[in-house]
Amino acid sequence: MPLPVSDRLAIADLVHLYAAAVDDRRFDDVVELFTGTAELRLPEPPGRLDPVRRLHGAQGVRAAMSGLAAVTRTEHAIVGEVYAPGDDADHALGRITCIAHHWTVRGDAVTDVVWHLRYDDEYLRTSRGWRIHGRALTVNAIETPVVRRVRLPPATGRPAAAGP
């Protein structure tokens, strides 16, 4: 049985809110998009592209986001989304494909490390709506194209649910 349209839309919003909050560097908002007991399974690129490291809960999400502190700007382009029901009406699964740019500026040099990645997600309906309960990040490819310039991210205090 497919997911109800309202659930599918809410979960898609969650996925895009995650990308927007990461790109806006609102890492506290990112934490709020996960359940308190969420598990992140992460790769260790460039050596390991499959998820090999496990982080748990809000502290784990914060630790994962802290890895972006040295990156000037990111851009997560969601290029594919497939959702399916989970074991019951309060669980769902997702497979998200994404192209994630990670720009770093040092003096006049700009580096872009591009990850072509997949998130294998588990979602849980909570009293606050759908949240990410499990996420396995797999990097399918890494590239480093030449970049001339990057715009610095704007300062923002908007919450993740504030919209674009």
Automatic annotation (TrEMBL):
Residues 5-135 form the SnoaL-like domain. SUPFAM superfamilies: NTF2-like (SSF54427). InterPro entries: NTF2-like_dom_sf (IPR032710), SnoaL-like (IPR037401). Pfam families: SnoaL_4. This is SnoaL-like domain-containing protein.
